[in-house]
Write a structure and sequence with these properties.
The structure is a single chain. It is globular, with a radius of gyration of 21 Å. The chain is mainly β and about 230 residues long. The strands form seven sheets. A three-stranded antiparallel β-sheet has the order 1-2-3, with no helix packed on it. A three-stranded antiparallel β-sheet has the order 4-5-6, with no helix packed on it. It is built from no helices and 21 strands. Helix content is about 0%, strand content about 40%.
């Protein structure tokens, strides 16, 4: 059956296909991801199943997450790590926390220092830098927090433009939202502000228009140069 048509119930315990319940009822489950694998938890623990409801491997975990780029993050008593579709560990490294692979990179948190960095599909560290926090890569860039503030980094872990912010988000169609001492605003790939105004809350641009909120929580729309839309 097509994994894209397998649905997860609202209580996240049962799968269905064509309006008919399939497999058994689980203690907890997550949706199917490419190439047709889902994380589930039964009385034996967390593991992954295929579209026939069959376990992919014999191991069981405290928690298992979805497969991304054919690699999944799992958790046992010793920490977080990644496995391939056969259930084999990506490496011998254990982490205090680990995300999911995006753009062939995965953010992890060191088990010893608590710092964040990214690894590649072989489980190797991509760059020597360490950060207080780091997020997923999107369109070739990620957000990372240093002792001096937030910045965008490229795939080598280096600062994209040298600009630092109090808060920062990933790029969406060439623009990102950022915060300085005066509030939130939008920036371009060079880290330059698109306009002078600052807002209490802000959303990314959607087809050239963004929803913003002023200090009194009044909501309105602006265009990419800050004009009212």
């Amino acid at each position: 059956m097509d994994w894209k048509e397998i649905l997860l119930s609202a209580d996240r315990t049962q799968f269905s296909f064509g309006n008919k319940a399939i497999f058994k009822q689980y203690l907890e489950a997550q949706k199917f991801h490419e190439p047709g694998i889902a994380p589930v938890c039964d009385e034996t623990g967390w593991h992954h199943i295929n579209t026939n409801g069959e376990p992919l491997y014999a191991s069981r975990y405290l928690k298992a997450f979805g497969f991304y780029e054919r690699i999944a993050t799992v958790v046992n008593e010793k920490g977080f790590f990644q496995i391939n579709i056969s259930g084999n560990p990506l490496s011998n490294e254990l982490y205090k926390w680990a995300g999911n692979f995006q753009e062939s990179k995965c953010v992890v948190r060191s088990n010893t220092t608590g710092s964040y960095y990214h690894i590649d599909l072989a489980g190797a560290r991509i760059y020597p830098h360490s950060y207080l926090y780091a997020g997923d890569f999107k369109d070739g860039f990620a957000c990372a927090k240093t002792v001096n503030g937030w910045q965008h980094i490229d795939k080598t872990g280096n600062a994209l433009n040298g600009r630092l912010f109090l808060d920062l988000n990933i790029f969406h169609k060439g623009f990102a939202i950022a915060r300085d001492q005066k509030g939130w605003f939008h920036i371009n790939i060079k880290g330059e502000e698109l306009y002078r105004n600052r807002y209490r809350m802000i959303e990314p641009f959607y087809n050239g228009v963004a929803l913003v909120h002023d200090d009194n929580y009044n909501s309105f729309l602006i265009g990419e140069t800050g004009e009212l839309a």
